[in-house]
Design goal:
The chain is an alpha/beta fold and 394 residues long. The chain has 16 helices and 13 strands. It has a 7-stranded parallel β-sheet, with helices on both faces. The longest helix is centred in the N-terminal third of the chain and has 23 residues. The chain is elongated. The chain starts with 9 loop residues before the first strand and ends in a 22-residue tail after the last helix.
Length: 394
């Protein structure tokens, strides 16, 4: 409750890494347009700053990869949680918007609910993959969930969580992707060229594990067809090992549009391939210990989001020792052939996945949900969800 009888007018966004900040930025911008009476503050980064939020803690100080790094980051997280609890107790916060980063954000949500502050959770924990026990906690601490995958809504609603499927944020960009011809022109490729794209990953560890088999696959295919063009998609600021292939940074959608087929690591970028209509083979290598733990904890039959969303094997997956240059080349070879049945079948599956992700506008929908949780000045809140709300909107 706000001090001095004045209503709280602050919306706090909490992200823990760059990807969450990127998704939160458009939401904050849309909320600022909807509700200029609200002050936006954030644990975030450049995207939230650009949207007009005051970044009180930069999320770059929080994210960590690897067991040792995560352990070392624990004191920083506890200090931040304590600072946020003091902020909540001061009565200035009307709404907390948690974005992804579940290990920390579920604790933030619990602290907010103890202070009587509603919580909107955007990009909820992946309980469909592992740690389904979190559903009970989520039902206690989340006022409203905004989910980005179609099958998440009924799962969370069944657990008593007021849930809305808002569409995947990547769908926002599908309509702005260039045509195949425009993408090839932008990348300096001939309209009739055969093009293979490689997506080794955005983290240095992923690139180190994936690069050798991906390059070997490309070399095998080029020996069969010397005219085959090979592009390597890289995340901004990331380097791939020395290569004779052209590296394109920060334009994954354009690369997918230009390519006839791709070899990609597993992750959200496989949904980009679906939206761009680019057939692909997924390969992934993890640290052996991490892979062994994942096999024990994760019960899903697939690892790529394309296959998880489809509920079947739309794209081939080659994991760990199965991810070799020879096997990658064999799997992607028919996808480079415009007349191959395997290519046609995969394109149909990818189109269905893309359609299931929504039509764009996720940020605006999340902003509208946020605005609905903060009463307009002069109006009495009549239906602000509390902890454990059992609504089932989906």
């Amino acid at each position: 409750m706000a001090t001095g009888g004045a209503p709280a007018r602050e919306v706090l966004f909490v992200t823990g890494e760059a990807s969450g900040d990127l998704h939160a930025g458009p939401v904050a911008a849309a909320l600022a347009a909807l509700r200029p009476d609200l002050r936006l503050v954030a644990v975030g980064g450049d995207a939230l700053r650009a949207a007009g939020a005051e970044v009180v803690v930069d999320c770059a100080t929080l994210s960590a990869m690897g067991f040792v790094e995560v352990v070392e980051a624990i004191p920083r997280h506890w200090r931040l949680l304590t600072a946020l609890e003091r902020r909540f107790a001061a009565g200035r916060t009307a709404l907390v918007v948690c974005v992804d980063y579940p290990g920390f954000n579920l604790r933030v949500a619990a602290a907010a609910r103890r202070a009587g502050i509603p919580v909107l959770y955007y990009i909820t924990p992946q309980v469909w993959a592992w740690r389904r026990s979190r559903l009970a906690t989520m039902a206690r601490v989340i006022s409203k969930a905004a989910v980005i995958l179609p099958f998440e809504a009924p799962l969370l609603a069944e657990a008593g969580i007021d849930t809305t499927f808002v569409g995947h944020p990547l769908a926002e960009h599908a309509s702005s992707l260039p045509t195949r011809t425009a993408a090839r022109t932008a990348l300096g490729l001939a309209p009739g060229a055969r093009v293979l794209a490689l997506f080794p990953g955005s983290r240095s560890g992923e690139i180190a594990r994936h690069w050798a088999p991906m390059r070997e696959a490309a070399e095998r295919l080029q020996r069969e067809d010397p005219a085959l063009e090979v592009l390597v998609a890289a995340a901004p600021g990331r380097q791939v090992p020395a290569t004779e292939y052209r590296v394109v940074a920060g334009a994954s959608g354009t690369v997918y549009r230009a390519a006839d087929a791709a070899i990609s690591k597993s992750g959200t970028n496989t949904l980009e391939a679906a939206l761009a209509g680019c057939p692909l083979v997924v390969g992934y290598r993890a640290h052996p210990v991490s892979f062994a733990l994942a096999k024990r904890l994760v019960t899903l039959p697939h690892v790529s989001l394309v296959n998880i969303v489809a509920g079947r094997a739309v794209v081939p997956e080659l994991l760990q020792d199965a991810m070799t240059g020879e096997r990658l080349a064999a799997a992607v070879r028919p996808l480079l052939d415009a007349a191959a049945p395997a290519r046609r079948a995969q394109l149909e599956g990818l189109a269905a996945v893309a359609a299931s992700l929504g039509e764009g506008g996720a940020a605006g929908r999340v902003a509208a949900l946020a605005a609905s949780l903060v009463p307009v000045p002069g109006m009495v809140a009549s239906n602000v969800p509390g902890a454990g709300t059992a609504g089932r909107s989906a």
